[in-house]
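User: Design a sequence. Structure:
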């Protein structure tokens, strides 16, 4: 079986591509809101690209002590989210995040807190970042909510990653029809 010069060039181009998919933190592209704001701890602090976890460094978002406190990221369009990484507060109260839920979907019912659940956070060590697998869940909104209790919700960074795959039409079969 012969392979044409065009087919060889095509294959060389394919094999020169990086073997791993492009990974994008889509959280930085979105807009955020939360159920309330404690002091200057605005919701944007959680997507500023800074994992600083000492509250006084000014890079954490925090709600007031509310029933069912929530934080929401609006990605402005629907994405397939593979992972969500959360950085917890270091200087105080790391147990406050225990029991929080990560929810992903396209609905704003109950402020987005009724969307399908990706994960329940059992605990995150003080100052640590933990990644939760969401396996390509689709949604425009990513919510973090502490359901069923009155609590402060503090998030020092939220990152949401999607893997961009190669386009379907990257492998034009007509180039190989005489080989196949």
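Assistant: Done.
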């Amino acid at each position: 079986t012969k392979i044409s010069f065009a087919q060889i060039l095509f294959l060389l181009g394919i094999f020169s591509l990086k073997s791993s998919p492009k990974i994008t933190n889509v959280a930085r592209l979105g807009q955020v809101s939360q159920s309330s704001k404690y002091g200057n701890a605005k919701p944007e602090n959680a997507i500023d690209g800074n994992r600083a976890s000492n509250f006084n460094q000014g890079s954490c978002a925090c709600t007031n002590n509310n029933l069912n406190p929530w934080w929401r990221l609006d990605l402005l369009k629907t994405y397939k989210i593979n992972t969500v990484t959360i950085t917890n507060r270091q200087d105080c109260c790391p147990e406050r995040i225990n029991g929080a839920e990560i929810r992903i979907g396209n609905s704003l019912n109950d402020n987005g807190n009724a969307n399908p659940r990706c994960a329940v956070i059992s605990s995150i060590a003080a100052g640590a970042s933990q990644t939760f697998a969401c396996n390509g869940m689709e949604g425009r909104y990513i919510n973090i909510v502490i359901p069923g209790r009155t609590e402060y919700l503090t998030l020092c960074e939220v990152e949401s990653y999607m893997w961009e795959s190669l386009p379907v039409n990257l492998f034009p079969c007509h180039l190989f029809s005489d080989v196949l």
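The domain at 21-165 is CATH 2.60.120.260 (Jelly Rolls). The chain has a mean pLDDT of 87.
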